[in-house]
Design goal:
The protein has 13 helices and two strands, in the order ααααααααββααααα. It is mainly alpha-helical and about 300 residues long. A hairpin with a 5-residue loop joins strand 1 and strand 2.
Length: about 300
């Protein structure tokens, strides 16, 4: 077996068996390619026999390439997954997998935008678009992120058969995990408006949101539109499409939503992922206190 075949099998496993997102597949393939090329590995057996010392040496080389802590941790996760697959291919036990701890990463709190900012972004994106249908499209996507807490990939995975949107929507998220999210009337109206203006035929089994040439809308185009609106509104660089999902969670928690319900709405596998929003809400309350309390202004 040659190196190209290894990568093809690895890609097929990620896409078909693990159902990883295109972004994850690209990242894991890149990490695998670097490891295979630099360590001259041309069989699953050689990959399965890699020890902790060799992997540490490889990661040290990647550090020399300029890899930071977060990127190193992601690459290590990709390598561990690859070796686990190699062990399975050779019939060996997972117990033989090298035990390596990744670098410590200081996790920052998500940076939500205010409700007014979220609305202003969606409205400005619509008003400044090159075509009416593109403005309606981008506004509908952003409202799905803020109003329903969808990940951008989840919003862009919607099909023509999903419309007209009902009061709830079944969403397939990470790990092929399904959840039901409520859909507000403003979102229903925005998606209906876009569908009516879209110049491309929206077929039941094809992407609902289309690019300018009729293909599936890319995440990059949504990010670009929001970046333009962010600059115009004087918002920080943290005001990204994903920040709208953070805002959805933070604002619900601030309004009294319980963590378990929020976990279900966000599609988090563990409650620990949702608990970070308690810290965000506390930080927001502290900022409000500092801005409003008269003694803080003395």
């Amino acid at each position: 077996m040659n190196k190209a075949n290894l990568l093809e099998e690895w890609k097929a496993h990620l896409e078909q068996d693990r159902r990883r997102s295109p972004h994850t597949v690209r990242a894991y393939l890149s990490a695998a390619n670097l490891l295979i090329e630099r360590r001259d590995l041309d069989s699953w057996q050689k990959l399965a026999e890699l020890d902790s010392g060799t992997i540490r040496l490889h990661l040290a080389d990647r550090r020399q390439d300029g890899l930071g802590n977060s990127s190193t941790a992601r690459e290590l996760s990709a390598i561990k997954a690859l070796i686990k697959f190699a062990l399975a291919q050779t019939g060996a036990s997972d117990a033989n997998a090298p035990r390596i701890r990744g670098p410590r990463i200081k996790k920052g709190l998500p940076r939500p935008v205010t409700p007014d900012d979220a609305t202003n972004i969606a409205d400005l994106v619509e008003a400044t678009a090159s075509d009416d249908w593109i403005g309606a499209r981008d506004r509908a996507v952003l409202l799905l992120l803020y109003g329903a807490g969808l990940r951008i990939a989840e919003a862009l995975s919607l099909k023509g058969g999903d419309i007209p949107l009902e009061t709830t929507l079944s969403v397939t998220g990470k790990g092929n995990k399904q959840r039901i999210v409520p859909i507000l009337p403003i979102i229903q109206e925005a998606v209906t408006e876009y569908a009516g203006l879209c110049p491309w035929p929206i077929k039941q089994d094809e992407a609902l949101f289309r690019g300018a040439r009729g293909g599936p809308l890319s995440q990059g185009m949504v990010q670009k539109a929001m970046a333009k609106a962010r600059v115009a509104l004087g918002l920080p660089s943290t005001a990204t499409p994903h920040a709208l999902r953070h805002s959805f969670a933070t604002h619900l928690l601030g309004a009294g939503a319980d963590l378990r319900s929020l976990q279900e709405l966000l599609g988090h596998a563990s409650l620990g992922s949702t608990q970070i929003y308690t810290k965000v809400d506390a930080a927001t309350l502290l900022d409000t206190y500092r801005d409003a309390h008269p003694r803080e202004k003395d």
